[in-house]
Every structure is written in structure tokens, then in C-alpha cells.
Amino acid sequence: MNEISESRESREARLEGLGCKRKRVEDIRFTQGKGNYVDDLKLPGMIHGDFHRSPYGHARVKSIDTSKAKAAPGVLAVLTAADLKPLKLDWMPTLAGDVQAVLAGEKVLFQGQEIAFVIATERYLAADAADLIEVEYEALPALVDPFKAMAPDAPILREDIKDKTEGAHGHRRHPNHIFTWEVGDREATDLAFRDAEVTIKELISYQRVHPSPLETCQCVASFDKIKGELTVWGTFQAPHVVRTVAAILSGIPEHKIHIISPDIGGGFGNKVGVYPGYVCAIVASIVTGKPVKWVEDRIENLSATAFARDYHMTAEIAATRAGKVTGLRVHVLADHGAFDACADPSKWPAGFFNIVTGSYDFPTAHVSVDGVYTNKAPGGVAYRCSFRVTEAAYCIERAMDILAQKLGIDAAELRMRNFIRREQFPYHSALGWEYDSGDYHTAMQKALDAVGYQALRAEQAEKREKFKRGETREVMGIGLSFFTEIVGAGPSKNCDILGIAMFDSAEIRIHPTGAAIARMGTKSQGQGHETTYAQIIASEIGIPADDVMIEEGNTDTAPYGLGTYGSRSTPTAGAATAMACRKIKAKAQMIAAHLLEVHHDDVEFDIDRFRVKGMPERFKTMKDIAWTAYNAPPPGLEPGLEAVSYYDPPNMTYPFGAYVCVMDIDLDTGVAKVRRFYALDDCGTRINPMIIEGQVHGGLTEAFAIAMGQEIAYDEIGNVKGASFLDFFLPTAVETPKWETDFTVTPSPHHPIGAKGVGESPNVGGVPAFSNAVNDALAFLGATHIQMPHDAWRIWKAAEALGAQG
């Protein structure tokens, strides 16, 4: 078929642009075992590092004897805090404005904290030698309960800052206190509660969990002493930020630091920050003159790298008897562990928790958050969420169910009565956000109709009667969740990391033959960027997606960007991609007009070409234009066809969704079975429906794991009780339910292509849906709120406490 007679539909399909279920191009190498991960890297003369870690949760370090380790076979050097201190590398800054010990010198503050770094010719030799290091400790009382952190007799953990009354985020009122953060109108909220007809108050805890990506954190550092250049290959979700931090820490000029993130086996927020392993590998390479590889094992990953959640939220809602909410008040006690190493934008010590008003039209609200230190691993990363949004969504969705229970109103009906209405958008929330777009009633009604909600409630009522008659020991729960997420960090007016605005970038070059290469400031860890960015380019400038190569992760070639986490890739770099394409298209229009011998206002873009208005048979394809750009550009127009865009979004984006979980629980065993799970997501313009579905499946599986079993728990002396997959729940295909996915489309009005992001949404909405199902199942027995995780033992114990065991 020639280019003139080919239909518009055929040309559009050939591009595989926006809305196409294009297969992931990354999977060609992944499914054949041809991925290129950090641990695949083998450099000439490469050596290995491993840590000696503290067995104590809190102890004073009296002495460190490394002599036996240094004498062990293959050992080249052993680093301790004493070695790093002259280099001023014994402490490193965190993204949250705190400092963290690279190697503990005087005190250890959590079990698994790094004490010494052994460098040897083989990894197993380094590990063996690390076991030979002898450390004399003086055990100290451990503080693992955040509710006791600011007690008068609480042990002081951070002796390095015990006399500081001001921290990065304001006044500290106790040596173990990090910050108090407040937002909202306290006076108006207090008044709403004084006048309320009905109120509820509940402590809603979101337990400490861990992202546990398939690939652990690791790096290879190689310092070239001749050139004075440092190259680090690592599992970095934000390579440019790591380069900047490395320059600040090491004093090496930033242009002489090369950070490369190859393929990454999952991140989920765990690989945003900088870990002691990275710093020690760099120092070891400088000291030895050899490339140094550090790869943590699974126990190290679960016990020492960044955790998520550990938020204890006291939620209160004021309402009328008719079920109209009038005020929201939330206090959070945030357990940050031994150091404040949260990966939040600098001005937001509690992340975007002030999205806690959710999808509801609260007239007034007030939130306060207190961060505290404990003898646990530091972190507080956005585990498949956008900066504490998961905690906020869980808090409000549980609180709305508790209010519905107290009022005797159906949980779906209560939500419908309080949703922000479509005509209220853009909506300004009581806690300061401007929601861009939404159609909540339509989405909720579609979800309820899809699952046959009224029939499910009737079935539940019948089963409860059978239970009362002793005819069954099984109860049924219906968990609803309607969430609004805030993603796309972010606008420079309120989002930065270490003072760097959270814009993102795209650089696109069209080759003479019409193929293209695009480089981004983000970094995929499985999201399918190589597929979806190419689809944006295909739709924007009419080049088939198969003719577009996407590159990320190399700071030498990629434009500066803030990385991938918190569903920010599409809202920021996706927007930058579209804007760069439009710069290219503007130049292409000038070239097309020149070739067609008309004024540039007389040509218009049509899928993959520019045509003369009113004369569709006269056109030039993008391939024609690309060749001319390098062969014979119009007079006064420079050769080439490329553009770069740094996109600073005017606002966040606000994806939302309606989830329904139907669950059956055997009270004799506590075993919960998910009978059905329906997930409707609205992420604005859908770039690739197949990838969206995959993201939803993955996020829901992680939500299932969190709600139904995951927890990083500590005993009273600071021992980690869930440091391996023997104890930390990781669902397999056997346990994972079947997912039903659906969607509505409400484009973002300010995003260039209307997209909002979706990668975190299923985790944000999934956790409260599961928890609400468990609580709904036991509500008729008298339960108000049962804390997560909902494993079989805890469900059985909850049923026993409610008198349902005999």
C-alpha cells in the first residue's frame, strides 16, 4: 500500500502510539536471560567488599579488633570509622536533612548497623574475614516502641545531636524527637468537633514493612587515579542525585563522577537513597586502586536498608447524623528508626501525608506529625507509593468505614455522600492541595455495578444469619476502598531534594533516516519505560515506536533528572518527552512548509506527516523531513532535528480508583480467602493498557502481601524478627488472588498528554480494601478496628477476643 492511499487508521496503528497494547520491548532481553544487572559486571582486577554488622540493637562500641580479619587469606584492607574520619566520610547527609553514620564508631543504633568493611579478592573471603572481626560492646537499653521515645526516662539514642534543640524541620522537644509538622486549620477543626453530632476516634497503625525488591542493593565503584575520575555502577533509582551526593561527600568534581544504573531488578523506593555500602565501595576503590563490588544479601537488605511505613495514626472524624463529614483531625507518630533517612522532598518531612482528606469534601482539617528516633533501621521510603500517600489513604479509608459502622450507614453510601463532586474540580482541599480532575461518583458506581454490590450485601446478611444459627463457621467481608493519590513530584515551587528542584527531562534526536534516540532523566526498574516513552514519541511526532530507542541511567549521556519513584515518571519525564517532541514538531513544520513551497501556517500535522491544509494529497512524512533536516535545511534554519526539555510541572497529578475486595474467613483457623478483587483505576490518558494492567497486578500483589502478612517486627531488645523470607511474607502464585481490572478516563488538564501515573495506585488502594474486608467480616461480632497485618494467627486471635471461638 502506498503512502497516499493508506488509511489514517492504518497509519496510526503502524505507529503503536498512545493507547496501543504494545508488547514490552525490554522483555526481549529479560526473558532470554540477557539483562545487564550490577552483579553481572566483571571488571579486570575487580575485588569485593562485605560488612561486619552489629548484633545489638543499641550498644556502645568499646573497641574494634580487625587484626585477624586483616591476616585472613585474600584480604587487602579493612575499613572502620577511624579510617573514614580523617576523610570526613564517617558520616553522610541523608535526603531528609539528617546525618547518618557510614560506619559506627562509638555507638550502634540498630541491629545490622555497619561496623567495618572488609575488602578481599573474592566475596566469600571478605564475608569469612568479616566474621573474624572482634568488637567489644557495652549493651544499652533498646528503644523499639515509638510511643515511649519521648518519655522522660527514655534512653537517648542520638548522642551526636542530643543537645540540638533545632533540627532540619524546626524545634525538637526531646533528644529522640526529630520534628513536629503541622498543616491545616487547627482552630476551625476544633470548632467542627465541638459542634459535631457524631465523632469517631481510632488509632490506626500501619506496620513497618520493606520493599524487598528481587535484586538487592549493590554497586561497583572504580576510581581512575590517573584521570581522577570515579565511575560507579549501581542499583540507583535516581542516578543524577547520587552523583551530586557523591560529589558533595567525596570532594571529587561532579564532572569527574560517572554514575551508571544498568538494568534494575525492582526498586519500589528501596533504591532511592545512598547507603554505607556505596560510600565504602568508593573509598575502598580509591584506597586500593581497584574496582570494588559490594552486593548485599537478603538478610542485610531486609534488616538494614530502608524500610517503609511504621506510621501510627490517630484519626478523628466529625460528622452529622445524616453522614456528612464536617471535620478531620489526625495525629501521626512516625517511627523513623536510628536516623532520619526518609526519601521525601526536602520541605515535606511527612511526605504528602496531607492528602489524608482523600476523595472527600472535608470543610476543615488539621494534621500534625511527630517524627521520633528508635533503635531500628533507618528509612521511611515510598514503597510503591508517593511519599506517605499509602499511609494517608489507609488512614482515611479505614476511618470512613469506622464512621459508617457507627452511623449504621452502608460504607459505599457514606462515601457517595461525601465525595468531591465533578463540578468542584479543580478542587482545593482543606489541607492545601489542588486536585486537578476527577469523577468519583461515576467510578464508584461503575465498580459497585460491576461486582453486583447489592447482591453481595444480601449474601453477607444471609451468611451472618447462618453463623448466628450455628450453621457455618465462615464469615464474609466486603472491603471498599476509594483513593485519590498525589503523584508527579514535582513542581519546583514546593518540591526539591537537597535544594535541587524536582523537574525532569527528555532529550530527543531524530536521525537522518527518521529513526530516533531519546534519553531521559528517569530510571526504569521494571515499569516499561523503553516501551511507553517510545509510544509518546510515536504519537507526538509520527515515528513508529519500533524506530525509537530509549536510554536512561547514565549520567554522562542522560539530561539531569530526579529519577523514578512515586509514580513521577509519566507526570514529569513523560511530559518532558511530549514537550521536546513539540519543539521538534515546530521545526519539522518549517521544513515541511519549505519542501511543499507554502507558508508554515498552511500546513498541518496528520499522524505521521505534515500536509497542506485542504490538500491532503500534498504532504511530507516525518522521514522526508528528517532527511531534509540533515541534507538541505531551509535557509536560515540550522541543520539537525533534536530538542531537549526540562519540565517543571505546574501541579501534581491526582489519579484515583475504586476497589472492592470480597473475602471469606474461616473463624476456626483464621484463614482468609480472597474470593474476588475488582480494581478500577483512573490514571488519565492511558499510554499502554497492557503495561497498566501489569502495573496494577504487581501493585495489588504487594498490597495483598502488606495487608495479609508482611511486617518487619522487633523484639524488646532490638532484634529483627523478620529478616528473611522464612519470616517475611512474600506471596507466590499459590497465595496471590486473581485480579479483575477496569478503568475510567479523566485526563489531567495540565499535563501535556493528560496522563497521571498509575504504578503506585494499586498499592495505595489495595491495602485498605483488604483491611476493610477483614474488618467488615468481623464487624457484626463487635470489631471496630483490627490492626494489620491480617495473617491467620492474628485473625484467629481477634475472633477469640470477640468471643467467636467457642
- How many beta-strand segments? 34
Tally of helical segments? 19
Mean pLDDT: 96
Which runs of at least 5 residues are low in confidence (pLDDT < 50)? none
> Which class best fits the helix and strand makeup?
alpha+beta
**Fraction of residues in H or I helices:** 25-40%
**N→C terminal distance:** 76 Å
Radius of gyration: 28 Å
Strand content: 15-25%
Which sheet architecture does the biggest sheet show? 7 strands, mixed
Question: Strand order within the widest sheet?
Answer: 3-7-1-16-13-14-15
Shape: globular
Describe the structure.
The chain has 806 residues and is an alpha+beta fold. Helices cover 28% and strands 24% of the residues. The strands form ten sheets. It has a seven-stranded mixed sheet with strand order 3-7-1-16-13-14-15. The protein has a five-stranded mixed sheet with strand order 11-19-18-17-12. The longest helix has 28 residues, at 569-596. The protein is globular and about 85 Å long.
Question: Short description, anyone?
Answer:
With 806 residues, this protein is an alpha+beta fold. Helix content is 28%, strand content 24%.
Set down the secondary structure blueprint.
Blueprint: H1 8-15, H2 27-30, E1 47-53, E2 59-65, H3 67-70, E3 75-79, H4 81-84, E4 91-93, E5 99-101, E6 107-108, E7 114-120, H5 123-130, E8 134-139, E9 166-167, E10 170-171, E11 177-184, H6 186-194, E12 198-209, E13 218-224, E14 229-234, H7 239-250, E15 257-260, H8 276-288, E16 292-295, H9 298-304, E17 308-319, E18 325-335, E19 365-372, H10 389-407, H11 411-418, E20 427-428, E21 434-435, H12 440-451, H13 453-468, E22 474-484, E23 496-497, E24 500-501, E25 504-510, E26 516-520, H14 529-541, E27 548-551, H15 569-596, E28 603-605, E29 609-612, E30 615-621, H16 622-631, E31 642-647, E32 656-666, E33 672-682, H17 689-708, E34 740-743, H18 761-779, H19 792-801
Parallel strand pairs: 1-16, 14-15, 18-19, 26-27, 33-34
Antiparallel strand pairs: 1-7, 2-6, 2-8, 3-7, 4-5, 9-10, 11-19, 12-17, 13-14, 13-16, 17-18, 20-21, 22-32, 23-24, 25-26, 25-31, 28-29, 29-30, 32-33
